[in-house]
Amino acid sequence: MQTIDALAHQLSSYLEPTHINLVRRAYLYAEQAHDGQKRRSGDPYITHPLAVAAILSNMHMDHQSLMAAMLHDVIEDTGIAKTSLGEQFGETVADLVDGVSKLTQIEFESQAEKQAENFQKMTLAMARDIRVILVKLADRLHNMRTLGVMPPDKKRRIARETLEIYAPIAHRLGMNDMRIEFENRGFSAMHPLRAKRLKAALQSARGNRKELVEKIRQSLQKRLEDELINALVIGREKHLYSIYTKMRSKKKSFKEIMDVYAFRIIVDSVDTCYRTLGAIHNLYKPIITEFKDYIAIPKTNGYQSLHTVLVGMHGVPIEVQIRTKEMDEMANSGIAAHWLYKTNDNPNASHLRARQWVQGLLEMQQRAGDSLEFIENVKIDLFPDEVYVFTPKGRIVELPSGATPVDFAYAVHTDVGNACVACRINDRLAPLSQPLQSGQKVTIITAASAQPNPAWLNFVTSGKARSAIRHFLKHQRHHESIELGRKLLTRSLADRGLELQNLDKESRKTLLKDAGTHSMETLFEEIGLGKRLPHAVANLVPSDSRKANAQSPLMIESADGMMISFARCCRPIPGDPIVGHISAGKGLVVHHDTCRNIIELRENPEKIAMVNWSPDVRGEFPVDIRVEVESGRGIIAGLATRITEQNANIEQINVHERDAHNSVINLTLGVLNRVHLATILRRVKTLRSVIRISRHRN
Hints:
The protein is of the alpha+beta class.
């Protein structure tokens, strides 16, 4: 068991005596604060903070981080306030401790919400001081090492949280050694039987492989010596969790994964990395699609290496990573390398990337509606695989695997994403939903009047894009529901001989009091969202029945809108007689006057709204068409040509063969109005193979 004296001795290799004394002081304070408290294992509680500080000392962290590690559970478990810590050890240490402490005083509805709120609090603290996350990771690592004494359900919950959040964060910060330990320990706790079996299979496979691994290693080493390259060649072991995830994601057997032999070659300089690559490509043939140059384009977390896959003796695949000693240390320690190998106060690339990432988290946090949405976006953002694409000016943009041009647009700037209408990939027009490949050049085409499309949420992969689109749509929905609510209330008040704009301050105040809301805007929004009926709200205002007006219909001006939607059962289009129905959460739903579904809804007249088409109504409206045809070649092409000649879009097409001679084709078209539809039907009717054509409703 670690003691404070042993830790102090370890710290003397890189900290000043005055700083070591401050760490010792923090230890004694924590020991006193946790006096009498025991861990589940039966050990005194102080053994945990001491072990966390020891993990940080291996990274050569500064004295303030080590003090925070000693004190990290004091606020949470002993009731000592943050201000007391500030007075004793300074504001910086108190802030670090507070950033790591969980929210304990608040009651949460669910475990997921509690986890999300705590993570949100930690993100804010990380933005002020990146060391918060390193103390938290060390705390989690020691908890994972001592997980054995926990009850099974708690063990699984902690392991899942580690695999979903802490292991990806360690990866994002380039701390590979810590990530591997998190993953292996998390896997063993989540799936003990699978881990046990895999471990046994791995041990027996290792014995069979030893000879071949050594043969390949020697042939690589010899080739490099012949080329006068001084290099260290190491056989690389795959860890348990990575074997398990590869088996699951790539649907491969254990044998298939173990048939790949992995090596790492460590050399003295970047120049030698490329010479080494040439030498081993001359020894074994490379698989050309498997080469990746992470030295020229480092990964998001600062990782640098050359990756190649060779076909070795007996056709076995050999994975090789080539890197310098500094790159190897960076790959294993990541952001911790900033402290571990610190020679001056200039932050290294990994440190700057980490700050950038935290800044991105903060932006997401501001846009997220709640903590659960925020943590979902963070999980998306922690995807380990990246694609690297170029802007037209040659700047590299890093995106998660599977990202689309919309993700790219939001990565450039939120305003570019919001105004995006089309894109070019390598100077050719491409769909906004097309997944991007590394090395492509992406150009975004924007329009001032454009706005995000809700359908984008079906294909974007980055947390930033998802949170920005949701934020915009929420904002838009808020404004549209207020506008719709205002119109509906104005109409209902007019039925009672009142005018909304003429209501005096006192009448508005009484109305809000009776309605139980604090502002007219909130009242309008609730009406627009269908949570309140406009008639019921209008009835709260004393009326003058002599001035009552005949109902004036609400005018529909556009096909686009979030709070006015068109029923799919009857698909009304401009020119059709229509009626509106106020639906909770959806706003106003417009039906055809003769729609069967509206008959039941008419039983509650308060939910029915009079609506009409504006003379200037604009946009495309979907309409269903049913075409009976004689079967034959080229019918679909002929139909499509006639329809597109009339400037209509085909949104959907389904073909049902009735028998060998006849088929029924169901189409959904985008049309402007009834006149436009009539023209299309006339043109399609003239096709020789068409037997019957009609508009399909209900």
